[in-house]
Amino acid sequence: MRPVEDVLSDLGIGLDLATLYGRYKAKVSLRALDGSSRGKLVLVTGITPTPHGEGKTVVSVGLGMGLGRLGRRAVACIRQPSLGPVFGVKGGGAGGGMATLEPMLDVNLRLTGDIDAITAAHNLLAAAIDNHVFHGNALSIDPSAILWPRVVDVEDRALRQVQVSLAEKSGPPHRGSFIITAASEVMAILCLSRGYADLKARLAKMLVAYDTEGRPVTAGDLKVVGAMAALLKEAMEPNIVQTREGTPAIVHGGPFGNIAHGTCSVVSMLLALQTADYAVVEAGFGSDLGAEKFVDIVVRAAGVSVGTAVVVATVRALRHHGDPGAQGRDVAAVTAGLANLAKHVENVRTLGLRPVVALNIFDGDGEEEVEAIERFCEEEGVPFARTTAFRDGGEGSRRLAEVVMAEAEKGGECAPLYELGDTVRQKVATLVEEMYGGEGVSYTEEGERQLEEVAELGFGGLPVCVAKTSNSLSDDPKLAGRPRGFVVTVHAVEAAAGAGYVIVEMGQISRMPGLPSSPAAERVSLGDDGEVSGVS
């Protein structure tokens, strides 16, 4: 690995604007942001994910390295992995093979402590709410109407619903809950804020409870926003690391893509666009979640422009979408699965972006399967490139980099799906019909009530952030491929006023995942020599 001072030098950032965390990590002061923008933003999205994983991070890191091989300065902007997935089903989120972020263990485990700071700030507010009720409750908070949960950065299903204040003289007992830190509104706010003033203003707007008259109570009413912001001061600063080949990378922020908006921080993107020719930004899950939220939420908050979107696909994922029971090489299954790829290409174009299909190659792929995908892209007029970044690093992404550069030069302009003046109901209907390919939306009784409540509180003009399964274009994780004619069910609608969007929950979704029967944590260990193993 290169000393982080050299990586910072590549970006034109002096040590007076950086804080070093050892030899290979650094934080960059927000004072480094000067408002300029020299680079082009390339969004990396994908087809509908499968249990195997499609390697979006590998492709993102590989593309950054590939652009470097072509003499272009590129920065890969990646979300920080949550310890939940790292120790759960997914494992690490720093790439793999020859396309990794380094130092990989640090990126996966705790990096510079940002998620710890977010956890502390979030839970400080939770404590302040109960403390206020205990000490006289001047705001007349209704304990049964406290909305603010607590957070922890591990997957612990036992904490999804809890009873709070059971100890003697601790205040009135009431129901509470825990969610994973990546699902915290504080995480979303940190990632969407453009500076400290924006951070504090957003924190103050967060809706945390209702009083006994049904009026909203905000975080600003609890008077701890200043303390929360102080805890988040360093967490707001982007983290500089590097790829396996020494090209710059920024790992900052980690909102989940199926629950929140699913991209790294706005300040990390602004820093990359200011210092590099290309900012390669990974978005969470498929285009129906990550790319849509990027255009409808992130672009509106950040003021950035993006014209090119890489749609990551794999042969085995397309086999799955064509025939979930397919075993081994199966051209017919891949061909049937191309309907899923077609929908994601369509989505990217609907969002005003120029699609490029990147086929992440695995050893078990058949040449006939690959050629079927390539023919499809040619027929659809979609630029296509194979990538072998996992095996070959930047060299394996050289062709993809060439194709992306050519498309980026043609330009493009984001096209949000809806107007902010549309009602929440109209926005949801548009998303379902245009992004998911469904035919309608049904609301539960509770969903209808909350929909009306959000409008009455004046939040109807915010963008919509859908929380739904990532495993299907629909709200049913079992519907692979390109389902049609389905109706989604909205179970909950709530205002994330600080983040600046309305969360709409479709299907069965949990903000506190659970560990599998054999979690990845069982394979992680610390040797007597101090070396950590099992994180991948």
What does this structure look like?
- The chain has 536 residues and is an alpha/beta fold.
- The protein folds into three domains: 33-79 and 255-410, Rossmann fold, CATH 3.40.50.300; 114-234, Domain 2, N(10)-formyltetrahydrofolate synthetase, CATH 3.30.1510.10; 424-506, Formyltetrahydrofolate synthetase, domain 3.
- Helix content is 35%, strand content 21%.
- It contains 17 helices and 25 strands.
- Strands 1, 2, 3, 4, 5, 6, 14, 15, 16, 17, 18 and 19 form a twelve-stranded mixed beta sheet that branches.
- A hairpin with a 4-residue loop joins strand 14 and strand 15.
- Helix 11 packs across helix 12 (331-350) and helix 12 packs parallel to helix 13 (367-380).
- It is globular and about 70 Å long.
- The mean pLDDT is 96.
Quick take:
With 536 residues, the protein is of the alpha/beta class. Helices cover 35% and strands 21% of the residues. The chain has three domains: 33-79 and 255-410, Rossmann fold, CATH 3.40.50; 114-234, Domain 2, N(10)-formyltetrahydrofolate synthetase (2-Layer Sandwich), CATH 3.30.1510.10; 424-506, Roll (Formyltetrahydrofolate synthetase, domain 3), CATH 3.10.410.
